[in-house]
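Newbie here. two chains, one complex. Structure please?
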Amino acid sequence: MFLEYSYLIPVFPLIGFVVITFIGKKLSEGGGYLAVILSGMSLILSLGVIYEILKLEKPFEMIIYEWLPGIEFGILIDKVSAVMLFVISFIGFLIMVYSLGYMHKDESKPRYYAEMSLFISSMLVIAIANNLLLLFIGWELVGLCSYLLIGFWYRKPSASSAAKKAIVVTRFADIFFALGLVLTYNTFGTLNILEIFEKLNVVYSYNPGIISLIALLLFIGAIGKSSQFPLHVWLPDAMEGPTTVSALIHAATMVKAGIFLVARMYPLYLLSGDVMYIIALFGAITAFIAASMGLVMTDIKRIIAYSTMSHLGLMMLALGVGSIAAGLYHLLNHSFAKALLFLSAGAVLHATHEQLDIRKHGGLRKVMPITGTVALIGAWALSGLPPLSGYWSKDEIIILSSVSPELLGLAFGVTLLSAAYLFRWYYIIFTGKPGETYNIAHEAPKVMTIPLIILAIGACISWLVIYFGFKDSVSEWVNEYVEYETMVSNLEEVVEKNHVKISLIAGVLAFISFLITTLIYVKKRIKPETFREKLKPLHVLFVNKYYFDHIYNYLAENVIYRTISFLIDKLEKLYDGFIDLLGKIVYIIGRISRKIQTGNVQDYITAIILGIILLIIITMLGGV
Amino acid sequence: MIEYILPEILIVITAIIVLLLGFLTSREIYIKVIGCIGIVLATISLLLLKPTDELIFGGIYSFDKFSKVFKYIFLILTLFIIITSNTKRNLGEYYFLILISLSGMMFLASARDLLFLYVALETATLPTIVLASFYRNRIAAETGIKYFTVAALSSGLLLFGISLIYGATGTLNIFEISKSSIDELAILGGIFIISGLAFKMAIFPFHMWVPDVYQGAPTPISAFLAAVSKKMAFLVAFLIFYLSLVKYISLWNIIFALLAIITMTIGNLAALDQTNVKRLLAYSSIGHAGYLLIGLAVKSPLAIVAAILHIITHGVAKIIVFISCFKVGEHLENYKGLYKKAPILSIAIIVSLLSLIGVPPLAGFFSKLYLVIAAVSAGIIGIILAIALIINSAISIFYYAKIILNIISETNEKRKEDYNFAIPLILLAIFLIIFIALMPWLIEQLSDAVKIFSL
């Protein structure tokens, strides 16, 4: 009974957007309560829909509006979208509630709530779209909203430039996504996702290359959105927005869209082995470099942003080696822990007048007991230490990466680093000597702590879904279109063989790194400076973010900009001359044609007679 | 059988009621409401009637999907003309003439006999001559005389063409002409028919009356001529050249292609430095007539569908702009700063102008797109046509943008004006925007309708 109304899920927040845009100023709390209620309604509906879809064998598809053949707008809900639907609507709702406290003092609340509602609505569209065009529309709307929200405090120059960076980088990737759409429509004659899957084997039999190409193009789109190497540069800067926005973009929604796109089109990817390897490799590289950069940052939110990037890399790695289940499992677990970390960072910022530098904080656990505890849970869950939820999915991804040595090496590196950067973050802010902000800090209001506690509970228990058949239900459907089980049987063998060994090594690595971090920051046995001195080149490399920004800036300024301005200079002259000439011709013809237009009806009649003669001459020349 | 002319009967009855009512009341609103009710009733009855492929009334009348489509177009566009009209005197006469002209056009859509077709065409044209000189001043008299003279000549040419075809084939039925043996005499007849129709279509070199008449006529009548009345000639041309004289289709295609290119270029170039908006729109109408000719210059069902789509989108956009200059004023200066005075009306005008240019995702873009698609699939002539259309669209930006720039320019005048009349225009502008959603359905219906041509 819920499924028939599932199209309303994105409609509720959309209503919120429209209403708050127009009359938000007159509503209490700038439309905040309305936004919370509407996202709550879409949460309830989503939960009902998820409950029903879990019982169904087949995906649920409903066509609402047929636009062109092959492009029918409608809804497709299966278990993959159910995961995404749950994450978006649940975490989106909690963030909306939290915003009531966090944004209370901001003056432009209506704009905030309107944009957040539109953001949630368009993410929900991505989750339940039945064709790639609708998905793309949601995708672009999400990009627009992230631009607006990152630049929310647009008077800050850094915020508006970060917003610009985010939109330019993601748009660059979107071009490839759009190309992929065109190619898909050209190849399959449809953009309907299920129809594409049905035609997959036929197309594969005569043109396997085109499938790889489509898969690659769509993956480049996903790289941009999910902030993967080498298009990851926008994500850390995106921290300029309000913290709630960071949480929504990083934890629940936008960056997950890329993962979701790959999972959504998974049968397509399974048929293109090379692209799968690229996904795995890029994922692993992202995971590693992000973790290493996270280790040296001092910005409270950027550290978590790098952590997000690293975990997204792990998800891509899981998808790339062939396990959709592990990827989505980690997506689910990560969402809780990461939203938790961001919102506790938000609570700290809220209490300390937006002090972003972690070195200015210290000992905050005493004044913010709840925030401190949940932050510890969040850090624990993501660091790869048992038994919280992050451990289980991460462990599984590391085991899966043992299919090839380079992936395994990178994965071990990530394990070693992630416990270190997460606990470094936690220890510096919440333990040790009181920092500068100690005296002004206070516990957050209830409207903020309650969502935190709910998320903390989620971060502790979300791994249990594995006992409710989570893995089978998200991966079984793939078998219907390609021979998934035979494809990954080799993978299972590897896993079977190395399971205990690798799991043990990973656990030990994480524990060692946890111990070292504790020794450095709690027991003060080792000074962080000694590390910094000894590994100076590496430290410089990490702090400068592997010089990606420098390289891109150099390329943009010196190569692209110069070439274009040179070309424009030359072309402009040519073009100006051409346009002038054209203008003259047009002007002369115009004058002649107005000369003919005498206003005398006799002349008009003459013209008609001449016209008839002209027609007859044409006919005779035509040889009839 | 009589039910098939029910919509026409309703329109004629409404026309008579309106005429009589004109003697009794001087409140224009009553007459307008009666006229609108009549049109709505006719539309509903049209909606309820099932189309049939058989010819009725002794083979001269047909009620197929093709004629239905055109009847809808005529009815709905005329409805908006009546709603936005405002004449203040000789009320009954004014609306009576519009409705009679409408009934003529509706008969025309169903006519499948050349003589019936001719009579219907004259029924539709003659009232517009009276309407064009409705204000009875010097300009109106000049306009009327010019229009009448050219119309009379064209009518004669058309009749001459028809009689030549009758002489050549011995029949007047559109379907039977194509079956009988056709010789050179019929080609000559075809040429005279083209000349006669070209007057209505506003094609070079038969277009010269258009700027004078559109400028001199009352503005709603200019809108009626440009958006509705002009379009019936295309309907007739489709019938005659794709059904009766289809044997020489390659010749007609070449002639129409040539005329199309010259007409669109002349229209757009002449529009460039007009300062009178009505005159500018008249030239723009000539340009668009050139685009519409692609439907006759390219022999494919898609071309006809595209032309009908363009008839719809151009008609709607033209009504918006013409009616706006009825209320705002016909000089470009009148548009200065309109955005401050009447923002919503301004948006409607800008939307319609952008649609005329062919900016996606507005309606005009899609109809032009289909014209181009249809053209490029028809060989070298088609490609030349498509290029001509695209270049001309680019040229047209200059004069349409002139109006837009005037609308959004700053002005010191602060007075707000009452623009209640803008509501129907806004509805039409909304249609231009949501056209993207209706398009697939429209194309499906139109493709179904043009099946009678069996190309």
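Moderator note: The first strand of chain B starts at residue 55 and ends at 56. Chain B touches chain A through 37 residues (CB under 8 Å). Thread marked as resolved.
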